[in-house]
Amino acid sequence: MAKGKDVRVRVILECTGCRNGVNKVSTGISRYITQKNRHNTPNRLELRKFCPYCYKHTIHGEIKK
């Protein structure tokens, strides 16, 4: 059987605070890898995760691979 597009895909979440340059003292960009279901979440995923560079919980948004 030929497989089509997988329902569950791997996504990369990146800290929006570090990405936009809000925190000037951060030395890097925090990234998390997780999975999402395309049928349940067709739009971009955003989760509050801990950023070790900002030293606080920030919104991490999905980025392209």
From TrEMBL:
Q: Does the keyword Chloroplast apply?
A: yes
Give the matching InterPro entries: Ribosomal_bL33 (IPR001705), Ribosomal_bL33_CS (IPR018264), Ribosomal_bL33_sf (IPR038584), Ribosomal_zn-bd (IPR011332)
- What GO biological process terms does the UniProt entry carry, in alphabetical order? translation
GO MF term set: structural constituent of ribosome
* Keywords assigned by UniProt, alphabetized: Chloroplast, Plastid, Ribonucleoprotein, Ribosomal protein
Which residue ranges does UniProt annotate as crossing the membrane?
Answer: none
Name the Pfam families for this protein. Answer: Ribosomal_L33
Gene Ontology terms, cellular component aspect? chloroplast; ribonucleoprotein complex; ribosome
Q: What is its subcellular localisation? A: Plastid, Chloroplast
Q: What PANTHER family would the database entry show?
A: 50S RIBOSOMAL PROTEIN L33, CHLOROPLASTIC (PTHR43168), LARGE RIBOSOMAL SUBUNIT PROTEIN BL33C (PTHR43168:SF2)
The protein's matches in NCBIfam families, at most eight in alphabetical order, are given as: PRK00504.1, PRK00595.1, rpmG_bact
Q: Which family does it belong to?
A: Belongs to the bacterial ribosomal protein bL33 family.
Name of the protein in its database record:
Large ribosomal subunit protein bL33c
Q: Which organism is it from?
A: Embelia vestita
Q: Which gene encodes it?
A: rpl33
